[in-house]
Amino acid sequence: MLKEGFYSILLLIASNIFMTLAWYGHLQLSKSQRWAALPLTAIVFMSWFIALAEYALQVPANRIGSENYGGPFNLFELKVIQEVISLVVFTVFAVWVFKSGTLRWNYAVGFVFIILAIFFIFKKW
Predict the structure, then answer these.
(1) Which domain does 96 fall in, by range?
(2) How many domains does the chain have?
(3) How do residues 3-51 score in pLDDT, each as one tens digit?
(4) What is the CA radius of gyration of the chain?
């Protein structure tokens, strides 16, 4: 079961990289005149194409990690894991890849609360 959990998390990380590119990458295209001139419909189709890769990784990640298929996580745990990975991947992209923001103290406090949510979700009471 440890192996399934590990594979599930790796696939979720890869999935979230594609998700971040699909959802927010097009906002960076405005820095290039060639890409900024594309109509919105072209941007939507381009994002859908990228999102296809996200789903191709997300669905197997959830299936492999789900306790319904021999994985270690229940549905709530899978969702919390996905949200945490999503925030971490987004933060890395926003600060270091897109260079469009700084990590401020209030964001860090919010992340601490999310970590507390993880504790409460995974704690077996």
Answers:
(1) 2-122
(2) 1
(3) 999 999 999 999 999 999 999 998 888 788 888 889 999 999 999 999 9
(4) 17
